[in-house]
From TrEMBL:
It comes from Desulfomarina profundi. Its cofactor is Mg(2+). Pfam families: GTP1_OBG (PF01018), MMR_HSR1 (PF01926). This is GTPase Obg. Belongs to the TRAFAC class OBG-HflX-like GTPase superfamily. OBG GTPase family. It comes from the Bacteria. Its EC number is 3.6.5.-. The keyword Glycosyltransferase does not apply. Mg(2+) binds at residues 173, 193. Residues 1-159 form the Obg domain.
Length: 335
């Protein structure tokens, strides 16, 4: 099944139960007082973030979510039961918006974080509520209030520590499979990766982290060209960006500039993210060309790693560099 990273859905909280008109019927008491119970409150609709979920795939099959109605009140002062809440489980990293207005509601980033999106209606009053000195036997009760309802939009931004970017066929999927426990589809033609791929990366001394392969970007991606526009948002939460460059491509310098421009056009703050330039396919390039390209890209970024995803050469150097940067970021953050 395909990766779903945005969806529109309808939520309806439960209506409140109706109040009850009832009177005590006791032996030798011909006119007992009112004893109708109140209606129960309708259930709420709540969205809950769960870090073990990483796709909105469930929204492909279901677009309406409804909480339970409150029970009606009954005689003998029996109040209606509250309706059951409807819990919608979404991935951590989900942004909730009003579908009609586009208004931002909340960014659910923490595991277990909850958001009340539709409140249940209040239950109606039973007839004892209307008793007075002048009317001791009221024959009125009120209906429950309707629960809130609305159309919402959900957008998913993957929460990953490391993001892989680069032109299609630069070798990102192969690198992801080398670095993590992921098994993405790999083939030697552009746009093999049609959805973001997540993997878990393990280190010797640092705790494991999430690494994401962002589908191939092309020139104009920030304006909706190619597949990039749909997936650029997933790079926003990463703290380290690995820019994969196919050094066997004669236009690799121009290709690098193309992707960097797209990232900066999309969000200027991405320019401040830690970058590692990964010069891939060194096994297809002679030593002189490797040296030339290494020097060229080192002028742009001190973090340059030459490797071959295919043969595995240089992968250990990249892993050590990533661990070093993550350790530094942790100490910098704690300090």
């Amino acid at each position: 099944m395909g990766f779903i990273d945005e969806a529109k859905f309808f939520v309806k909280a439960g209506d409140g139960g109706n109040g009850c008109v009832s009177f005590r019927r006791e032996k030798f008491v011909p006119k007992g007082g009112p004893n109708g119970g109140d209606g129960g409150r309708g259930g709420n609709v709540i969205i809950r973030a769960d870090k073990s979920v990483n796709s909105l795939i469930d929204f492909r099959y279901r677009s309406h979510f409804k909480a339970e109605r409150g029970s009606n009140g009954q005689g003998k002062d029996m109040h209606g039961r509250k309706g059951k809440d409807c819990i919608i489980v979404v991935p951590a990293g989900s942004i909730i918006k009003d579908s009609e207005t586009g208004e931002f509601i909340k960014d659910l980033t923490e595991d277990g974080e909850e958001l009340l999106v539709a409140a249940g209606g209040k239950g109606g009053f039973g007839n004892p509520r209307f008793a007075s000195g002048s009317n001791r036997t009221p024959r009125i009760a009120t209906k429950g209030k309707p629960g809130e309802e609305k159309w919402l939009k959900i957008e998913l931004k993957l929460i990953a520590d490391i993001g892989l970017v680069g032109l299609p066929n630069a070798g990102k999927s192969t690198l992801l499979s080398r670095l993590s426990a992921a098994n993405p589809k790999i083939a030697s033609y552009p746009f093999t990766t049609l959805e973001p791929q997540l993997g878990v990366m393990h280190f010797k001394y640092h705790e494991s982290c999430i690494i994401a392969d962002i589908p191939g970007l092309v020139e104009g991606a920030h304006q909706g060209v190619g597949l990039g526009h749909k997936f650029l948002r997933h790079i926003e939460r990463t703290s380290i960006i690995l820019h994969i460059v196919d050094m066997a491509d004669e236009l690799c310098r121009e290709n690098f500039v193309t992707i960097e421009k797209e990232l900066n056009y999309f969000k200027e703050e991405l320019a401040d993210r830690t970058r590692i330039i990964v010069l891939n396919k060194c096994d297809l390039v002679d030593e002189e060309r490797q040296k030339e390209l290494r020097e060229h890209f080192t002028d742009k970024n001190q973090n340059v790693i030459v490797l071959s995803c295919e043969s595995g050469r240089g992968i250990d150097n990249l892993v050590e560099k990533l661990e070093e940067i993550l350790e530094f970021q942790d100490s910098d953050f704690s300090g």
